[in-house]
Amino acid sequence: MRAVTVDPSTLYCMGTSTDPVTVAGALRAHPVRVEPVAPGTPLGHRMVALAAHDLTDEELAETSAMTRGSWVHLVSSGPNYPHIPTLARNNLVTRSARAYAPSLSEYVITQHVLHCAEDPIDDAPKPFHRRNALVVGYGAFGRTIAETLTGLGARVTVVRPRCRTAHPFGSVAATPLEHLPNRFAHLMVVALPGIPEVVNFVDDALLRRLRLDGHLINPARSSPVDCDALLRWLADGTGRLTSDVETDDRAELLRPWIDKGRVTLTPHTAWRPWDGDPLYHRDWAAIYATGTFDRSTMRQQSLRIDPQQIAVDYLIP
């Protein structure tokens, strides 16, 4: 992707989840208006916040065709929506890679406490201290939840998908995944985005590292977890799954385990805090701060956003 020069006066919000009213309040320290805009509106050299999951396939196609030379910020962390590659050919497209990490981490902690409270030990469950936790993924969320669990006394091992290695959190010593001990983890947290490169990454081999009475928590997209392997793990033991974003087809396959109280599906709530703040504006503001104003006029009517100046995790793969 190449640098773009945009009008910095207005952030155009497309999709209900962009929540223009809340974001306008959060960005009041910036000289930026926040306005809703309908999908498919012609936008050239503008700043756009896009909730791609709120748009139909046809609306995304039209939006991709009608947007040129703009900075388009995806309010979600995952970029795998229809027509986003087309959008990225003619615009600079970024994503919300960091803003949701604290909220997702809070979700994990809450859900695991609730899980352990169902089977108390001497009426005083200790969900984390001296427990083994496996965090699969090491982006912003993976790092945040690994640090949080470590602070609560857990022994955390982090899996890096790209190199297929694991290491104790805080250590550089790497171990091939196949050398991890079987059934050692009390808790496994999936901290992976829903992108093609990690589809079915959590497979039979990785699930063998989770105890049969363990807890698997996935607060993000379901595609990184192999559904067949998951069903086999559930059938082999007494472990439980907590998942926040399952497809209808997968939810139907999990129905017998839901009925048995072994699977909890939450309605896509992990990413959003209690006060309803959509959060993505934090990552948007961080990227905005990398821009360079055209100072040829007193009003600074253009802003250059260069991907070379943006942290790589904000860019779509």
UniProtKB/TrEMBL annotation:
Domain of life: Bacteria
Transmembrane segments: none
GO molecular function annotation: NAD binding
InterPro entries xref list: D-isomer_DH_NAD-bd, NAD(P)-bd_dom_sf
Residue stretches making up the D-isomer specific 2-hydroxyacid dehydrogenase NAD-binding domain: 128-270
Pfam families associated with the record: 2-Hacid_dh_C (PF02826)
Protein name as annotated: Dehydrogenase
Source organism (scientific name): Nocardia ninae NBRC 108245
Lineage start: Bacteria, Bacillati, Actinomycetota, Actinomycetes, Mycobacteriales
